[in-house]
Write a structure and sequence with these properties.
Blueprint (H helix, E strand, L loop, with lengths): L4 H13 L4 E5 L4 H12 L5 E5 L1
Parallel strand pairs: 1-2
Length: about 55
């Protein structure tokens, strides 16, 4: 099975920007985990993020 498109996109961003500069948010994540990713984005610790539906 091929890698889902959005997950692949997040992986490519992590490879290009570094794991600490890219994040992924998806619907199966627990609330606190999503909040952590979004807090890192707002604080400028994550330059790009990808939302998976």
């Amino acid at each position: 099975m091929s890698e889902p498109r959005r997950r692949r996109g997040a992986r490519v961003l992590r490879e290009r920007l570094g794991a600490d500069r890219a994040g992924l948010v998806h619907g199966r994540m627990k609330g606190p985990d999503k909040d952590d990713v979004m807090a890192r984005f707002r604080a400028g610790k994550s330059g790009r993020w990808s939302r998976q539906r």
